[in-house]
């Protein structure tokens, strides 16, 4: 009995709450706020009209008339996250309102200063990231209804209509599908520390199943997102000002720094899930891919980044499986690797459809005589044709990461 009691007192490694993770929602912000306190009405008013303001090219003039608001009335993590979401969406609209050929060099003080302060308070960069776009940007239509796409909506939007909503919410469902896998990571590490092979086997089985469910969720992208809308309308608003030919010098945050700063755009590589799974499974990517992935960790909320670092410093699962000589464990481990490689292969399929094929079609349409005279026909963006919004060379990166995942198999 005594031995049992003493383990109760030792803090368990990787308790989810230590890393602002939830048993039910994983990395998603649980039930995000949808309104800021009254003093921030001017921000909310603009944020709720972003698609219309951008379409009518009036956003920049509206932002310039916005009062300079202090961030000192923001209280607690939820208000800060909503403020970051609102200011990041306004910033992306302001930057890209005129397309990639009409960018600005300076973010005005009344937007730059509060955005910088809120970012510092959260430990996030002053740009739209996955933490804003997906993790903190959802609400239930019926508060008591399920976390299903029919009962969900975004809090703040950008141009792209139903396709943008679909893109955000399908990505959210991938995050939700990962939750049992996140819990399995924690279980697996505890099981290694306690030399409990039965629990470890079960945890690995649950992890493989969760990764399979993530692939199923990702497949719903086809039902909700139009590739032409994604490529020609949505994608530019996720683009950053680092490694982007449309903004080679970065951006000056007026009132923050006289020197331009460069930040990567929103990217799926900023989701903590695959970083956590890679660390647990001991997957080693190429030097170039690792450098990019580690840079993307700077765009995660610091507690989520700390979760990944904690997994990295835990005892090696791979070594444990190898030294156990247990064929069941080995098979369960390989099942996880296989599911992860399949997920990454499927991600390549999605990127091919939504970027490569969509880019070729957009170019062909633009080249057709008679197409360009239509007032709504925008020249398709080309600055990030072969790159992801995070700035990576998208195909070489995704294929390399998929291949190194496969190499993690234990033969």
Q: How does the SSE layout of this entry go?
A:
Layout: H1 2-9, H2 41-48, H3 50-55, H4 59-64, H5 76-96, E1 106-107, H6 109-122, H7 130-135, E2 139-140, E3 152-153, H8 161-177, H9 179-193, H10 197-219, H11 221-224, H12 227-234, E4 252-253, H13 272-281, H14 287-296, H15 302-313, H16 317-324, H17 327-367, H18 394-406
Parallel strand pairs: 1-4
Antiparallel strand pairs: 2-3
Helix pairs in contact: 2-5, 5-6, 8-10, 9-10, 9-13, 10-17, 12-17, 13-15, 17-18
GO cellular component, one term: cytoplasm
Binding site for heme b: 347
Pfam families: IDO
Describe the structure.
This protein is mainly α and 411 residues long. It has a single domain, classed as Methane Monooxygenase Hydroxylase, Chain G, domain 1 (Up-down Bundle), CATH 1.20.58. It is 56% helix and 2% strand. A two-stranded parallel sheet has the order 1-4. A two-stranded antiparallel ribbon has the order 2-3. Helix 2 (41-48) packs across helix 5 (76-96). The chain is globular and about 65 Å long. Residues 1-11 and 371-377 have low confidence and may be disordered. Heme b binds at residue 347. One of its GO terms (biological process) is 'de novo' NAD+ biosynthetic process from L-tryptophan. Belongs to the indoleamine 2,3-dioxygenase family. One of its GO terms (molecular function) is indoleamine 2,3-dioxygenase activity. Pfam families: IDO (PF01231).
Give a count of the beta strands, DSSP E runs of length 2 or more.
Answer: 4
Q: Tell me, what is the CATH class?
A: Mainly Alpha
- How many angstroms does the end-to-end distance come to? 41 Å
Secondary-structure element order, as H and E?
HHHHHEHHEEHHHHHEHHHHHH
State the helicity in percent bands: 55-70%
Domain count: the total is: 1
Largest sheet: 2 strands, parallel
Overall geometric form: globular
Quaternary organisation = single chain
Which CATH-level-2 architecture? Up-down Bundle
Average residue-wise pLDDT: 92
Question: In percent terms, what proportion of residues is strand?
Answer: under 5%
Protein name: I23O2 dioxygenase
GO molecular function, one term: heme binding
Binding site for heme b: 347
GO cellular component, one term: cytoplasm
């Amino acid at each position: 009995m005594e031995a049992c009691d003493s383990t109760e007192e030792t803090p368990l490694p990787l308790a989810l709450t230590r890393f602002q993770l939830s048993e039910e929602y994983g990395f998603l912000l649980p039930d995000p706020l949808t309104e800021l306190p009254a003093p921030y009405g001017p921000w909310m008013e603009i944020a709720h009209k972003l698609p219309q303001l951008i379409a009518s090219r009036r956003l920049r003039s509206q932002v310039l008339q916005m009062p300079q608001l202090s961030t000192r009335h923001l209280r607690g993590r939820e208000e800060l996250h909503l403020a970051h979401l609102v200011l990041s969406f306004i910033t992306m609209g302001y930057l890209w309102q005129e397309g990639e050929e009409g960018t600005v060099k300076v973010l005005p003080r009344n937007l730059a200063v509060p955005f910088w302060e809120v970012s510092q308070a959260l430990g996030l960069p002053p740009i739209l990231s996955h933490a804003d776009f997906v993790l903190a940007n959802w609400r239930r239509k019926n508060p008591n209804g399920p976390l299903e796409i029919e009962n969900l909506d975004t809090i703040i939007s950008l141009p792209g209509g139903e396709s943008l909503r679909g893109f955000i919410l399908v990505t959210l469902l991938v995050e939700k599908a990962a939750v049992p896998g996140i819990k399995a990571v924690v279980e697996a590490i505890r099981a290694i520390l306690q030399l409990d092979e039965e629990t470890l086997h079960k945890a690995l089985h649950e992890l493989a199943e969760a990764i399979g469910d993530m692939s199923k969720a990702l497949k719903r992208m086809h039902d909700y997102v139009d590739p032409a809308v994604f490529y020609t309308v949505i994608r530019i608003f996720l683009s950053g000002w680092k490694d982007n030919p449309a903004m080679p010098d970065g951006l000056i945050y007026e009132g923050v720094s006289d020197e331009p700063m460069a930040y990567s755009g929103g990217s799926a590589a900023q989701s903590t899930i695959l970083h956590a799974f890679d660390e647990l499974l001991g997957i080693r990517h190429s030097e170039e891919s690792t450098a990019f992935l580690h840079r993307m960790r700077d765009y995660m909320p610091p507690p989520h980044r700390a979760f990944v670092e904690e997994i990295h410093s835990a005892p090696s699962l791979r070594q444990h499986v190898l030294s156990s000589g247990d064929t069941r464990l080995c098979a369960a481990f390989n099942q996880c690797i296989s599911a992860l490689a399949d997920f990454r292969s499927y991600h390549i399929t999605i990127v091919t459809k939504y970027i490569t094929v969509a880019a070729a079609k957009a170019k062909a349409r633009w080249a057709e005589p008679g197409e360009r005279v239509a007032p709504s026909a925008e020249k398709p963006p080309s600055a990030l044709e072969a790159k992801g919004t995070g700035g990576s060379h998208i195909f070489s990166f995704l294929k390399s990461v998929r291949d190194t995942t496969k190499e993690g198999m234990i033969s």
